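Retro notes, item 3 of 5
We never archived the inputs for the AHM complex last cycle. Fixing that now. Sequence and ligand:
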Amino acid sequence: MPESHVVTISRFLVDQERLHPEATGAFTDLLSDIALAAKMIGREVNKAGLVEILGRAGEENVHGEEVQKLDLYANEVIFKALDHTGRLACMASEESEGFIPIPEKFPTGDYVLLFDPLDGSSNIDVNVSIGTIFSIHRKVSEGPRGDLIDCLQAGCRQVAAGYVLYGSSTMLVYTTGTGVHGFTLDPSIGEFLLSHPDMTMPEPPAKVYSVNESYYPRWSEPQRRFVDHLKGEAGFNSRYIGSLVADVHRTLLTGGIFMYPADSKSPNGKLRLLYEASPLAMVVEQAGGRASTGSRPILDIEPTDLHERTPLYIGSAGFVEQAERALAGGSKI
Ligand code: AHM
Ligand code: MG
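Structure as it came back at the time:
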């Protein structure tokens, strides 16, 4: 590709900002800061296989520094990349119990960042893709330094959301509510380059379902019937990585349905609404897909707890609607 056609994420963000003359630039800077954090996390993720050589978490590395667990490292990198910028009122992370205030010594801003710093981290040791997920809201509380209510907003009020996939290449995919754009990291120049402009879910979608089927005995009868139908007469193929960002990314690119249902042991499933389901729901819906609890849109849920969980059905709109009908007990799937 000639150099003139290469669009870096910085250039893309600036071009997008020009389309909105009222924009202050704060939002563009925020996404740039997230891209920087993603590069730093990606660099460490790529070194994970060298753990025997470089040292294990809890030990000291060759430089005499304590080696951190990667998910805690990722948490800290994101926090430190954004705490001092004056663009955020507060943050919340899957790794932290309460909401995270901006340190008093730094100025605050109008946005709120929620993130899962390193999702699927149990896959690190086996060199399987993992990801970072982020969600941005506008502050709604009165004071300057943010409050819990700023974090507990329904997904439909997100102003941006996205994820970073640390896979065979590192990709950043985000939406601000006007389409979905994907960037691939060129490690030789350390830049995210626009590789997937205006991502939309393919039609017709690939007939693929993605679910941890080992939980079948714990599922409800309608959930079992639905999966039986998909792999039976509907002729679906099955793919499950067990790393949410990677499973959803595949679903976004090829079509299909990803499910993490409720079951008898986990009545709300496993996935967290604010750090996993909501941001991925915004991305997938912006690409023309659908995201549901099985009975209502993920983006409609008004959260009451920072770490609440939700069942998740996400992917091609028609397949998610089929799941909703099946779970409602309708005879016609
Ligand atoms: P984590 O937040 O502790 O990393 O767990 C989330 C991960 C997701 O990436 C993935 O979709 C899911 O757990 C897999 O769970 P299971 O092993 O029950 O299938
Ligand atoms: Mg997670």
